[in-house]
């Protein structure tokens, strides 16, 4: 199985999460999200029963489902306007409860839209569609 990791960096003073998959010893960036690692820990990691290793700025896992869940949560959450605590909780519950088929669909949509131009704005419509469907 291929290892995955999510790393937080600061860009212009704001946190960004970069999502990587390691294949043949090389890391490939699959997605980027404008969230902090602390928010992902609080809302997404606490809802999923999976094994992972957590350092100060990185989440490492071999669990593909966990990685896909984190990508979908990052994509959905970053475009949310006026994020109240209850709305964030509802989104994290919806993402955590996705079945395998739905999780794969949303993961593929976020990753493919992001990789077309390496642009976060391309993923906002996917996040909006998810929120319209699951809220």
Topology:
Layout lengths: L3 E8 L2 E10 L2 E8 L3 H7 L9 E2 L3 E4 L2 H15 L6 H12 L3 H18 L6 H11 L1
Helix pairs in contact: 2-3, 2-4, 2-5
Structure notes:
The chain is of the alpha+beta class. The chain has one domain. The protein has a five-stranded antiparallel β-sheet with strand order 3-2-1-5-4. A hairpin with a 2-residue loop joins β2 and β3. The longest helix is centred in the C-terminal third of the chain and has 18 residues. The chain is globular.
Our Rg estimate from Cα atoms comes to 14 Å
What separation lies between the terminal Cα atoms? 34 Å
How much strand content do the residues show?
Answer: 15-25%
Spatially, the strands of the biggest sheet line up as 3-2-1-5-4
The structure class reads alpha+beta
Strand count, sense and barrel status of the largest sheet are: 5 strands, antiparallel
Count of helical stretches = 5
Low-confidence stretches: none
Shape: globular
Q: Give the SSE string.
A: EEEHEEHHHH
Label this structure with key terms.
135 residues, 5-stranded antiparallel β-sheet, alpha+beta, single chain, globular, 5 strands
Short description:
This protein is an alpha+beta fold and 135 residues long. The chain is built from five helices and five strands. The protein has helices at residues 37-43, 64-78, 85-96, 100-117, 124-134; strands at residues 4-11, 14-23, 26-33, 53-54, 58-61.
């Amino acid at each position: 199985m291929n290892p995955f990791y999510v790393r937080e960096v600061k860009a212009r003073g704001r946190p960004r999460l970069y999502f990587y998959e390691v294949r043949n010893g090389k890391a490939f960036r699959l997605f980027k999200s404008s969230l902090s690692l602390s928010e992902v820990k609080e809302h997404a990691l606490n809802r999923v029963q999976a094994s992972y290793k957590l350092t100060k700025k990185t989440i490492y896992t071999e669990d593909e489902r966990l990685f896909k869940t984190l990508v979908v949560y990052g994509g959905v959450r970053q475009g949310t306007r006026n994020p109240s605590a209850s709305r964030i909780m509802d989104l994290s519950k919806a993402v955590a409860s996705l079945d395998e088929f739905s999780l794969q669909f949303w993961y593929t949509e976020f990753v493919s839209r992001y990789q077309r131009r390496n642009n976060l704005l391309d993923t906002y419509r996917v996040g909006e569609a998810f929120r319209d469907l699951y809220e």
